[in-house]
Model the fold of this input.
Amino acid sequence: MKSAVIVFPASNCDRDAKVALEEMTGKTPAMVWHQDSSLPDVDLVVLPGGFSYGDYLRCGAMASQSNVMREVKRHADKGGKVLGICNGFQVLTESHLLPGALMRNAALKFVCKPVGLEVSETQSAFTRKYENGQRVTFPVAHGEGSYFADEETLDRLEGENRVAFRYAKGENPNGSARDIAGILSEKRNVLGLMPHPERVVDKVLGGTDGRALFQSLIENLT
Amino acid sequence: MKARVFITLKNGVLDPQGKAIGHALNGLGFGSVGEVRQGKVIDLELSGTDQDKAKEELKAMCEKLLANTVIEKYEIEIK
Done:
């Protein structure tokens, strides 16, 4: 599986993503700068966490207008896989690759802690190695992760089984609608989630629950 | 030409910041304060003199970048 990690000014989980991809795939991902107007030939594009462009205007808004995002959209339109983590999820909603928006946490506080999640959809290239309903723990670290969409969109996401991850009962850290932590695109080739699977691929770093996400992709793309 | 764009959250979208501001105002003794909603103002300077054209352009700017129409609405004022 060949992969690329997009680097925006003020991305700060780009190297976490790189290390996780190296560990899981055995190959070094291409690091692609936001001003680049071409993407290398890859199977997976990762939009990492961080505070791209200083969160100016809205989280992910400026990044969604960058050169490289045009290429990422093209990659997604062709069915290529895109994984947006944290700020990457915000960039995906601002780019309209995923529906809805991520708003200020309900309690107005930055939340940085491990959170229990439920894998609510395993029929996807990102989650097939998990069990349906499996409980996993990923860290979250965000101030604006409250998922919002209108009722009709939420119903459609649920009806089409596009909610990949939910916060476990009583663990919703940010007030997200219907406890949504991560969603799939209509064609199921784009996943955005606020929690950080790339930070839990090594026991030394606190957990291995994120490994199955990368294993799912490797199985699908190799 | 100068323009001002007001961006506010749509009705029904929760605004925790507005709520916190309301609580703080109540705490300061401003008991008359009910619901508070926070938004933003963007001032722009535009070249040209055709106001209708500017309005069209500003609308496109709002739709494309200035507002996230999933959660926000906007109003345009040309001065």
Q: What stands out?
A: The domain at 2-78 of chain B is CATH 3.30.1280.10 (Mth169; Chain: A ,). Chain B is about 35% helix and 30% strand.
